[in-house]
UniProtKB/TrEMBL annotation:
Species of the source: Fictibacillus terranigra
Keywords associated with the record: Membrane, Transmembrane, Transmembrane helix
Protein name listed in UniProt: YtxH domain-containing protein
UniProt entry tagged with the keyword Oxidoreductase: no
Residues of the signal peptide: none
InterPro entries: Desiccation-related_membrane, YtxH
Segments traversing the membrane: 15-34
Highest taxon, organism lineage: Bacteria
Amino acid sequence: MSNENNNQNINSKDFIIGALVGGIVGAASALLMAPKSGKELRSDINEQAGTIKDKGSEWSAMAKDKSSNIARTVSEQSNQVAGKVKELTTSIRRDLDNWRNKGKEVADESADAYGEITSQVEAEANRQPEEELVEHKY
């Protein structure tokens, strides 16, 4: 998208420069080719210079407006992207913390279960010889 905007800015810039150069060359050639007296020619040149100055001011204002709009749009979009990245980062951290806590819970439960099983096995192992002795006596 930025490449597309960059190409559009370059095309707009090239168009403005071409229009200015074309206008100046056209105005100069029209003035110089027309059969007028020196006083009339100077008057026409002054008028054309004023017109060119006004057009240049208009185009300059238009370029400033467009560039400020583009800057505002880029700023808004970058703020949105930064906000989304921040939200995702927070979400990922929260999920990782939850997984760590669940892992600790599972480890604790496994240790408790292992302890219970070990105790039961030891109790069973200790009880069997006594039962065998009782069975052999009777």
